[in-house]
Amino acid sequence: MASLIRSAKSGNDWNLNDLDSYHISLNQVDALPFFGSQACASQELPQPSVDPELLTNVDAGAMQQDRHAELIHYLDLAMIPEEGETAVVDFTVELFKTLGYVRRERVARTRMDLPFLICGESRHAKTGVCIFDRSQKDILLLVQEDKRLEHGDPVNARAQLVAGAVGVFNENSAQRESVGLPPLAEKVIPGIVMAGTSPPFFKVPVSRTLSTHIRHGTYPPEETHVSYCYPPVPRPGRRRNEGMKPLDNRREILKCYEAFKVIVVELEALGNEAGLKLKLEGFQGQLVGKVGCRQAPDLTVALNPALIALGRSYQRTHDQKVTFACSWSRSRP
């Protein structure tokens, strides 16, 4: 594989040969081990936290709530190949809103264009949908549409998702550096490939080493193992045709979305916690003013505004109070 020819191409042009060229493998696993220890311990996926009418009514006309009817209309459109990629994107955004992936600072963005440096040349990796945290300026989740038609030639949506994950890793790392945090050493990027309304879920580990090899167009000695799983729908052979339309499929797929939401939150918290720890350990503040108190009337406070913002975000995520420690000294006449 080290002798394969590597060329500078955009992330949306990647195929399985590009994964081989950079020592990246795709490994399918069962749903319970993929979604983590919590699912394995109970031997079942969590029940979806949605309105019961989404689990009991097949068609939009039977829905009592307008927003649920709209979601099923989007679902129907996304399952028609002639409607194209935009229908899949529209459905994904509405689904994320319904399932609570999107809230407050977390927004769903479409068609984000990420810089992608490969073989020494600048290219781009374009997302279908991503969840973007405005407070952290981080991309938390990536969605790639599978453009394969029912009887057409397959395209390599999985490879394109991996390329997009590398773009996300580089973008998030650059954002960290811009606020004084160290760049990422490694990070698991959660992703979804949307084949109509049938999603396999992915965990893509990206390291600074892998990113560097792609940037230089060289073969990494260490293999990158990407894991993915399919929802355990009752009729696996028809998952692509049926998607989320049948109620039994819909329930199983929504269970997977519920479990995957936990993974997304955990990976975000893990990155925030590591970044905050590193920032606190290497804290170098700037003098911004003085405050007085009985024990220290001329206490000098040195707090970096970026650090304060990071701490507040961590506090919201973990629902825990963050205390900043800083050096101080009494002023002398």
Task: Give the overall pLDDT as a whole number.
Answer: 83
**Element string (H = helix, E = strand):** HEHHHHHEEEEEHEEHEHHEEH
Strand-residue proportion: 15-25%
Q: Residue ranges: pLDDT <50 for 5 or more in a row?
A: 149-153, 275-310, 313-333
What summary fits the major beta sheet?
A: 7 strands, mixed
Quote the distance from N terminus to C terminus. Answer: 71 Å
Structural class by helix and strand composition: alpha+beta
Strand order of the largest sheet: 1-9-8-7-6-5-2
Shape: globular
Task: Tell me the number of strands.
Answer: 11
Number of helices: 11
Give Rg in angstroms.
23 Å
Give the fraction of residues assigned to helices: 25-40%
Tell me about this structure.
The protein is an alpha+beta fold and 333 residues long. Strands 1-9-8-7-6-5-2 form a seven-stranded mixed β-sheet, with helices on both faces. Strands 3-4 form a two-stranded antiparallel sheet. Strands 10-11 form a two-stranded antiparallel ribbon. Strand 7 and strand 8 form a beta hairpin. Helix 10 runs antiparallel to helix 11.
